[in-house]
């Protein structure tokens, strides 16, 4: 007969695996944190607001019975040294990092390219592109130390479909995609799997900022996207260097 420990391993595919999620205070990041916790992961969560992180932590405790490690950081203003220290700190505490999901992103303003304000540009580059590079730089060693390291970076369809006034957002996400794809090729001969995830149109704060008159109740919800994103974090995941587009489940009749 299978042991209780084996039963837990079957029901919790991420039992005690260490997962770092950015942008975890709301939207897709918060929904993903809950999904990973439900699957057994031990979470390290990053977002700008302590209050938002604590709300996510409450939801994580409700499904898993244990809390997350909360790191309130602004990925543009004050994260330079902190992001550089995250990888070594995780390595010291856990000995590895099994999962990295960089979900944090900012839209900033929709504006003509010729009118982009330098401060807005710096913030958008800082969160959407530079933070991705710093996370890769900091987390590469602990991800390689895991038996089945998984890294996923949340992107946008705007990269493939440039549109007027979206230049700042699209360009920074395009840069992130190139960086991630290059890294994926560099680690291709290791157990680490690296992918991009495009959730398509989801009812998030960023979407509401871009389309304030839209009925969010008619859009895909973050909790619907989270399982597909979590699947890319599983040890059994074999995709690598891919751009995975979320496809909502079709209703059955």
Describe this structure in words.
Helices cover 45% and strands 13% of the residues. The protein contains 8 helices and 7 strands. It has helices at 4-11, 27-38, 50-64, 80-94, 118-145, 167-186, 205-210, 222-231; strands at 18-22, 42-47, 69-72, 99-102, 150-154, 193-198, 243-245. It has a 7-stranded parallel sheet, sandwiched between helices. Helix 2 (27-38) packs parallel to helix 3 and helix 5 runs parallel beside helix 6 (167-186).
Task: Write a short abstract of this structure.
Keywords: Oxidoreductase. This protein is an alpha/beta fold. The chain has helices at 4-11, 27-38, 50-64, 80-94, 118-145, 167-186, 205-210, 222-231, and strands spanning 18-22, 42-47, 69-72, 99-102, 150-154, 193-198, 243-245.
């Amino acid at each position: 007969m299978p042991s209780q420990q084996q039963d837990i391993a079957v029901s919790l595919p991420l039992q005690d695996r260490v997962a770092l999620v950015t942008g975890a205070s709301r939207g897709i990041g918060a929904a993903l944190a809950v999904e990973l916790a439900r699957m057994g992961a031990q979470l390290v969560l990053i977002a700008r607001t302590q209050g938002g992180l604590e709300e996510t932590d409450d939801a994580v405790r409700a499904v898993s019975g244990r809390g997350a490690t909360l790191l309130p950081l602004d990925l543009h203003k004050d994260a330079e040294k902190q992001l550089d220290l995250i990888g070594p700190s995780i390595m010291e505490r856990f000995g590895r990092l099994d999962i990295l999901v960089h979900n944090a992103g900012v839209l900033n303003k929709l504006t003509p390219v010729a009118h982009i304000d330098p401060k807005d540009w710096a913030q958008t580059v800082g969160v959407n592109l530079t933070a991705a590079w710093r996370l890769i730089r900091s987390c590469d060693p602990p991800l390689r130390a895991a038996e089945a390291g998984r890294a996923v970076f949340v992107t946008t369809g705007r990269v493939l479909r440039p549109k007027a006034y979206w230049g700042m957002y699209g360009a920074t996400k395009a840069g992130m995609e190139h960086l991630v794809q290059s890294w994926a090729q560099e680690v291709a001969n290791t157990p680490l799997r690296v992918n991009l995830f495009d959730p398509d149109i989801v009812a998030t704060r960023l979407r509401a900022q871009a389309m304030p008159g839209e009925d969010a109740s008619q859009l895909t919800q973050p909790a619907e996207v989270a399982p597909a994103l979590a699947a890319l974090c599983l040890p059994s995941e074999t995709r690598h260097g891919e751009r995975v587009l979320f496809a909502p489940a079709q209703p059955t009749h």
